[in-house]
């Protein structure tokens, strides 16, 4: 990535992949492609730390909860794992940990390593109080997931009451819900026999089954569960190592994978990988690699975590599965910002247990790199996902040279001219909201949960409203009446009234949500919050590029996008239209006091009573600026468990540090 603009495009693209994978269960790309792009992103952030944005996928986990489920905040975040793709990467991970531990401790022997199959399922957080299951939740964004307690209680392997106490007063137990192969095949045969849609793979089947609104449907699905670790614990777990923890879980009646092993050396850990890779096809469930964990809890605490991943654990992936097929066509899809993305249509081929027929090509540079042409035989790679990666063209099988691909010059949806900036690999439609595809995706963004949060207005309803020309821009949503909505298919009086009520409720929002909802290029949720903390609407409309780049998280590219947006007469008009429809953010959304005015606070590590977002909102309400990195201008660092480099930097700079208990006590005093 040669500049910050291409870096931000990569961040946006990877967040889109995350959303489709974790929330919609509709992966857009294969594991290998995602991992490669994430690795390039990490390399760019390492080379250019000034580019780093807080919404980068290297700083977050998964995605947010679905709207139809209640939210559940994990008492301890569910972190994701870094990946090792070969033996050298695994050894490097182990040596890094060993080096850290040797700095401060005289190790009598190297740390033991716990080895577990990496199940291809859905992560779940189980909370037991006094041995009784009180809540089950999905991973979500790592801090907040979906409350699926009723569905989880239908799992036959999951005890509602633990056995053989004593147990901690409260404990979070992490596990993976999966669908065994035989159950998956039998279920798909039943669905096909009744004319219903079948699932593409066991992981999607497990995810879809857990997210059923009717627990009876979940109960009818052949789901299974293995637990693999603990989160927050109140009381005594009485286990000094991870392997002892798993043994404790088994005594309590929880299912633990019998393939789990604890070994004494990295060589034995590698041997376990080879052993299980040979037995992979024999297992009754899908796995896509091995998870390695430092066994001793003390060493886990010493090693801590970096961003979203613990230093004491890593996942080594199995090689992706490959197959050859023919590229039959390339379609072009238009996104919210006008980016036109090429999608390869393939002759269907069975690979990795799934029949696949398309793959994303990302952009025109990727097409040029591959040298791909219509009719080519191509090698595709799949690693547990629906949509694979095109690895290469098989030149030897090209019967004759097909003509080189001609890039489109007009939008495939609205026929408007396409343009490509000199420093971008992306073609863009120049029509903006005139383009139906951009209009649809922008409206979907506008009503989404983190934007205006309009419940009951989904993609199908928006599609119908746009098709019948009932809405053209966001303000048109607020002018809808029940009688108008009732003209649509399957929209009765009660449903129409609910939509209008939901739209009316969404008018009262915050300035940050409003800014995010506008869909300004490169202005994500966190940047919108930062801007809302420093400007009102009039000030933002008048701000120059020079003024904007003084704001954290706003560089020259984002600043220019903001200026372009607020100086565009058409966009100014529909912002004014929204205000005239009654969209507002009450004054109480601003600081409730100025007790922390002029101070810059940073939050790091895991917080248990509050999420970092909640703590940040309360600090901003007291006048503080909440930043993402520590500098000499930082007034205070709040450090929870797992605090890493930010804590070290704060200590080296002499920045005051407090823990969560001190923060809560201070907040109560300031807010009184």
List the SSEs and their pairings.
Blueprint: H1 4-22, H2 31-47, E1 71-73, E2 83-84, H3 87-104, E3 113-119, E4 122-129, E5 132-138, E6 144-146, H4 149-152, E7 170-178, H5 181-193, H6 202-210, H7 215-219, E8 224-234, H8 242-251, E9 261-263, H9 266-279, E10 287-294, H10 297-303, E11 305-306, E12 309-310, E13 313-317, E14 321-334, E15 339-351, E16 354-360, H11 364-370, E17 377-382, E18 389-393, E19 418-419, E20 427-429, H12 436-447, H13 459-467, H14 474-477, H15 482-485, H16 493-506, H17 511-517, H18 525-534, H19 537-542, H20 545-548, H21 556-566, H22 569-580, E21 600-604, H23 612-621, E22 625-627, E23 636-639, H24 645-653, E24 657-658, H25 660-671
Parallel strand pairs: 2-13, 21-22, 21-23, 23-24
Antiparallel strand pairs: 1-6, 3-9, 3-10, 4-5, 4-7, 7-8, 10-13, 11-12, 14-15, 14-17, 15-16, 15-20, 17-18, 19-20
Helix pairs in contact: 1-2, 12-13, 17-18
Binding site for NAD(+): 31-35, 80-81, 116, 139, 176, 293, 317
Active site: 118
Enzyme class: ligase
Beta-strand residue fraction: 15-25%
* CATH A-level architecture of the largest domain: 2-Layer Sandwich
Give the strand tally: 24
CATH level 1 name of the largest domain: Alpha Beta
Q: Which structural class is indicated by helix and strand composition?
A: alpha+beta
Tell me the overall shape. globular
Q: Over all CA atoms, what is the radius of gyration?
A: 26 Å
How widely separated are the two ends?
A: 49 Å
Helix content: 25-40%
The count of helical stretches stands at: 25
